[in-house]
Design a protein that fits this description.
The protein is of the alpha+beta class. It has a single domain, classed as 4-Layer Sandwich (Metallo-beta-lactamase, Chain A), CATH 3.60.15. The protein is built from eight helices and 15 strands. The chain starts with a strand and ends with a helix.
């Protein structure tokens, strides 16, 4: 289910915006959340470790084929059949150097698809993965995207961090990668304290813990995102970790979070 954020002003934001439930989102029979069927914009929450989940993001390319970002390392035949109803997977990308666990499996599943990563991500993946294979740069992906989809590499990134957005009916669906998150506190004590101390949870927040590993200049990353958010206000926000946000206030709430961090 999606969560919505409570309205907030820039003056009242203290790094986090609490979330509350809204009604169930439309899904495929096997769990893909349908953000915009015509635009081929979907999300799927998957598990990549004990108690650890992430979100995969899908959008339609200019060709009508699909771009899959942060592909799940494990995916069922039924989930793949659901996805096929929206188009053929033609491009697969990792959103940074950490979300690489599914690349090898998806290369096997879709041998004709091209795989992409930002240079910093590709460098890390080459050291950490034995099956991801060769990854093309994001510059090679850009011509495939068309006017309605963007994949943006952040400045000051240690690991090829990116965000993505796709034009949908009524606005834009954003994939915030590990820049923003909307998570509950982890149940285990040490992890819980780590997330609390870094103010990375609970609720809709800047993912400060991730920034320690992915950015050389967090403020530069957040300022660049803020500039893009103002030009392409999100109506749906899909973080790499945590619940989807689709409240009417999501654009303003996102701007408030980023302004609070950048001044």
């Amino acid at each position: 289910m999606r969560k919505r954020v409570t309205p907030a002003s820039a003056a009242s934001v203290t790094m986090a915006i609490p979330a509350r439930m809204v009604g169930p989102v439309q899904t495929t029979p096997h769990g893909w959340q349908i953000i915009d069927a015509d635009a081929g914009v979907l999300a799927l929450t998957y598990q990549f470790g004990p108690g650890a989940t992430a979100n995969c993001f899908v959008a339609k390319l200019a060709s009508g084929g699909l771009l899959v970002i942060s592909p799940p390392p494990k995916i069922s035949t039924q989930e793949l059949e659901d996805l096929a109803a929206f188009g053929t997977v033609e491009a697969i990308a990792t959103n940074n150097g950490f979300h690489h666990l599914g690349l090898g499996r998806w290369r096997e599943l879709f041998p004709n698809a091209r795989l992409f990563a930002a240079p910093g991500a590709a460098e890390r993946i080459a050291k950490k993965s034995n099956n991801a294979g060769e990854l093309e740069p994001l510059s090679a992906l850009q011509p495939l995207l068309g006017d309605d989809v963007a994949v943006v590499e952040t400045p000051a990134s240690k690991c090829g961090e990116t965000w993505a957005r796709a034009k949908i009916q009524g606005g834009y669906a954003w994939y915030a990668s590990d820049i923003l998150a909307n998570m509950d506190l982890p149940p285990k004590f040490m992890a819980r304290m780590l997330f609390k101390l870094t103010k990375s949870a609970p609720g809709y927040r800047v993912f400060h813990l991730a920034h320690k590993f992915m950015a050389t200049d967090k403020r530069a990353v957040l300022q660049a995102m803020l500039d893009d958010v103002r030009q392409h206000p999100p109506t749906v926000m899909i973080p790499a970790h945590g619940e989807i946000l689709d409240a009417a206030s999501v654009a303003q709430d996102t701007e408030n979070l980023l302004v609070a961090e950048t001044g």
